[in-house]
Amino acid sequence: MEKGRRPCRNRAIMKQKHDTDREKSFLHILKLCVGCSSIAELEAWIADVSARDRRTVAGGGILHTTRMVPKRMDEILGGGSLFWVIKGQIACRQRILDIQPFTDVDGIGRCHLVLKPLVVTVEPRPFRAFQGWRYLEPESAPPDIAGESGIVAMPESLRRELAGLGLL
After folding, report:
1. Alpha-carbon span 150 to 137, nearest angstrom
2. Residues 90-102 pLDDT 10s
3. DSSP secondary-structure letter at 43?
4. What residue ranges do the domains of the chain occupy?
């Protein structure tokens, strides 16, 4: 470090506030959250699915079906998360509990991502729209927003605007 320069205190604090189930060594998946315009809508959808017990599995996980099976499945299982892109920003994540490949009635290979129902808000980061899903390397994953910080208490729209201005 250069003489007279101090490390960014906020970045060090944010790195300490990562959720305990998020380890550096696990690969993540990034996916568009189609049909939801906010984290609150995603949480409401999860609550609705859980209440109707449709798409839920033993242990409380919920199923999200995707066309492609991750080839790097072993790098994801045990600590990887599904990061959701909502309205052009990486906004939140859900822990991936299991990946279950299957073949549907038409003979097409698909996969169930078994997700922990808890949605963890992350530091908003812009991301362009894409089809399907992408791998997200651990060093590229945005940090969680800790529950005790004032940032998580902000309305999501304000967090988005501040992130867009580069202030978050």
Report:
1. 28
2. 999 999 999 999 9
3. H
4. 22-164
